[in-house]
From TrEMBL, chain A:
PROSITE patterns: TRIAD, ZF_RING_1, ZF_RING_2. InterPro entries: Ariadne (IPR045840), BRcat_RBR_TRIAD1 (IPR047555), E3_UB_ligase_RBR (IPR031127), IBR_dom (IPR002867), Rcat_RBR_TRIAD1 (IPR047556), TRIAD_supradom (IPR044066), Znf_RING (IPR001841), Znf_RING/FYVE/PHD (IPR013083). It comes from Molorchus minor. Residues 436-478 form a coiled coil. The keyword Metal-binding applies. The keyword Chloroplast does not apply. Its EC number is 2.3.2.31. This is RBR-type E3 ubiquitin transferase. It catalyses: [E2 ubiquitin-conjugating enzyme]-S-ubiquitinyl-L-cysteine + [acceptor protein]-L-lysine = [E2 ubiquitin-conjugating enzyme]-L-cysteine + [acceptor protein]-N(6)-ubiquitinyl-L-lysine. Keywords: Coiled coil, Metal-binding, Repeat, Transferase, Ubl conjugation pathway, Zinc, Zinc-finger. Residues 124-333, 289-333 form the RING-type domain.
From TrEMBL, chain B:
InterPro entries: UBA, UBA-like_sf, UBC, UBCD4_UBA, UBQ-conjugating_AS, UBQ-conjugating_enzyme/RWD. The active site is at 92 (glycyl thioester intermediate). Residues 146-184 form the UBA domain. This is E2 ubiquitin-conjugating enzyme. Keywords: ATP-binding, Nucleotide-binding, Transferase, Ubl conjugation pathway. PROSITE patterns: UBA, UBC_1, UBC_2. Residues 4-164 form the UBC core domain. It holds the Pfam family UQ_con. Belongs to the ubiquitin-conjugating enzyme family. The lineage of its organism: Eukaryota, Metazoa, Ecdysozoa, Arthropoda, Hexapoda.
């Protein structure tokens, strides 16, 4: 059992350091030794290499890129930054384009104007078109577009823009001129230290957001930036605030569903959930004795307290038919005659289909929360046992490992529903729903066993953990496409 | 008020007064106070448009950070135009928002507004109702005289011109339903 656990967590073990895993590694040192030789990329479909960087480290990383480009193209670091920002920090692409046609790169990156600027009036005093005061020529500055404005006006312009949150996008003050002010030009005109600081802070944020290999940790008040060379929709976990998120979109991790689909799904849920909430009430009647039942635990295997009937919470069918190989309940059988039915029936069918998936999505999300509760109860129960001399604290640690694994599996299961909802009918969907059903069945078994941990044999529980995790990785291996 | 802003407005005020458009009575500005923070603008409806012959009064508020931020402009005169709110007079024009440049002036703003009157953009409306009706009218070339007829009939019944327009446009130019609403 531990083999499967450690191999799948190989990529995370360094960030997800909970106490139980320390013990795990201590006890299973021999199991680990032969695993390390296998490339984790091949065994674990969720394996993701990334680093959590502090602001200074990100600065260093960005500056290295800037210096590299400025030395290749012989341009100032400030201009290199504008180029990099507009080309998503792709040095090779910029170099290639620049070698082919330097002018077009500079124009499209808004460093140079598209039309050649008119020649300047070289009198000693000129009138600044912004503040309309005549001033000596040496007080005037301009960008490559040669639109000249006085020093004070530039300062005012930059301060106003920065106060509105604009930094890398500050343009020239002339009408219809799109040339951007590079960093050195802006800083030259900013004297107040707090403005300079604000400007640099905003620039830094813009740079990180435009860099495909970097992403701000979405955790509240967290300043960590995650760096990875793989620009994929994989799970990154912040070492500081422990927030886990999808590296590509920054939202909650959502394998096996991809970023666009989960976004579509979440918007849909936000729009439709009122109806869905209304239709799927929080209570159900026992299929046998019709007593009203509220679900208060994570498991879908229900036992009516009144008539002791075992049934499935999802389909209200007899639980006995769920235990074996077919777990029909998670499968939505599409009506084959839909094409012949009226528009009204089609709309109803669409709502029915959506509700089917939404109900299961919601249900697993609720189960996840309820199982957190179970975990706290578990802690209390273990405490009691240790106090009354039934084994030591260490003896009961496996229950926590089991609860963590359960949460991980259920999380993946929850995110398989949006995936299935947007899948086209066909053999691939059938295979997916088959695997999903298998995973669901094993998760419910695991949940049932954890909730009744004292009466379940430890070996049996660990066996169940192994099966559930294997089902999860198999599904991800076949369908996680990042 | 910041020094630059007042200085600029003084200067621009002179620029407008001296401009050739004023000579043609196309644009006009008036100061409303001594601190140059509020002005009254006026533009003439451009020729060959439904606005021809009309004079449109504008409220111009000059922010402290002018000319680094655009002036706040809205129509005081009620106007039926897809990019201008028929209720508040708010204007949807890029140079009054993110496309503003410090080198632009009151004169350029007034001229741009005049240009907006002659080139409406019903696909990016400020007033959705007006945007929709304009699109319908554009589709049907005889609609204009048809609308005029309907307004005239309501006016003949003793309804004010503006009220007639409001009622008709909110009922999709259905004369019967508009009449019903007006006399109910």
């Amino acid at each position: 059992m531990e083999e499967a656990m450690t191999s799948s967590q190989g990529g995370e073990s360094d960030m997800d350091y909970s106490d139980n895993e320390c013990y795990d590694e201590y006890y299973n040192i021999h199991d680990d030794s032969d695993i390390e030789q296998i490339d984790p990329r091949k065994i674990d479909p969720e394996y993701f290499e990334f680093r959590c960087l502090l602001e200074e480290e990100v600065d260093r990383l960005l500056n290295e890129t800037v210096e590299a480009l400025s030395s290749i193209l012989h341009i100032s670091p400030s201009l290199a930054k504008v180029l990099l920002y507009s080309h998503q920090w792709n040095v090779n692409e910029i170099t290639k384009k620049f070698r082919e046609n330097p002018t077009s790169v500079l124009v499209s990156s808004r460093i140079e104007p598209a039309t050649t600027p008119s020649s300047l009036l070289l009198t000693r005093y000129i009138i600044c078109p912004v503040c309309v005061t005549p001033q000596p020529l040496d007080k005037f500055y301009g960008l490559s577009c040669t639109h000249m404005f006085c020093k004070d006006c530039w300062t005012m312009h930059f301060e106003v823009q920065i106060n509105q949150g604009i930094s890398t996008g500050i343009a020239c003050m002339a009408r219809d001129c799109v040339v951007l002010a590079p960093e050195d030009f802006v800083l030259k005109h900013l004297q107040r230290p707090n403005m300079r600081e604000k400007y640099q802070q905003f620039c830094f944020q813009d740079y990180v957001k435009s860099h495909p290999e970097l992403r701000f940790c979405p955790g509240p008040n967290c300043s960590i930036v995650v760096h990875s060379c793989e620009m994929k929709a994989k799970r990154a976990t912040c070492t500081q605030c422990k927030t886990a998120f999808c590296f590509r979109c920054g939202c909650d991790y959502h394998a096996p569903t991809d970023c666009q689909v989960i976004k579509k799904w979440l918007t849909k849920c936000a729009d439709d959930s009122e109806t869905a909430n209304y239709i799927s009430a929080h209570t159900k009647d026992c299929p046998k004795c019709h007593i009203c039942i509220e679900k208060n635990g994570g498991c879908n295997h229900m036992q009516c307290y009144n008539c002791k009937h075992d049934f499935c919470w999802m389909c209200l069918g007899d639980w006995k038919s769920h235990g074996s190989e077919y777990y029909e309940c998670s499968r939505y059988r599409e009506n084959p005659n839909i094409a012949h039915e009226s528009v009204h029936a089609q709309a109803r069918e669409a709502l029915k289909k959506y509700l089917h998936y939404y109900e299961r999505w919601e249900n697993h999300s609720k189960s996840l929360k309820l199982e957190e509760q179970t975990l706290t109860n578990l802690k209390a129960r273990i405490n009691q046992k240790v106090m009354s001399g039934l084994g030591t604290w260490i003896d009961w640690q496996y229950l926590f490992t089991a609860a963590n694994l359960l949460a991980k599996c259920r999380y993946t299961l929850q995110y398989t529903y949006p995936y299935a909802y947007y899948m086209d009918a066909g053999p691939r969907k059938e295979l997916f729903e088959y695997q999903q059903a298998q995973l669901e069945a094993e998760i419910e078994n695991l949940s049932w066993k954890i909730e009744r941990a004292e009466t379940t044999d430890r070996g049996e529980l660990e066996n169940q953990m192994d099966i559930a995790e294997k089902r999860r990785t198999t599904l991800l291996k076949d369908f996680l496409d990042v | 008020m910041a020094n630059i802003a007042a200085q600029r407005i003084k200067r621009e005020f002179k620029e407008v007064i001296k401009s050739e458009e004023v000579a043609k009575c196309a644009i006009k500005v008036e100061l409303l106070n001594d601190s140059y923070t509020e002005l009254k603008g006026e533009i003439a409806g451009p020729p060959d448009t439904p606005y021809e012959g009309g004079n449109f009064i504008l409220e111009i508020k000059v922010p402290e950070t002018y000319p680094f931020n655009p002036p706040k402009v809205r129509f005081i005169t009620k106007i039926w135009h897809p990019n201008i709110s028929s209720v508040t007079g708010a204007i949807c024009l890029d140079i009054l928002k993110d496309q503003w440049a410090a080198a632009m002036t009151l004169r350029t703003v007034l001229l741009s507004l005049q240009a907006l009157l002659s080139a409406a953009e019903p696909d990016d409306p400020q007033d959705a109702v007006v945007g929709d009706s304009i699109k319908k009218i554009l589709k049907c070339p005889h609609a204009n005289s048809d609308c005029d007829d309907k307004i005239k009939r309501l006016v003949d019944m003793g309804v004010e011109d503006h009220q007639a327009r409001v009622a008709l446009s909110s009922y999709n130019w259905d004369l019967e339903r508009a009449t019903e609403q007006l006399f109910s």
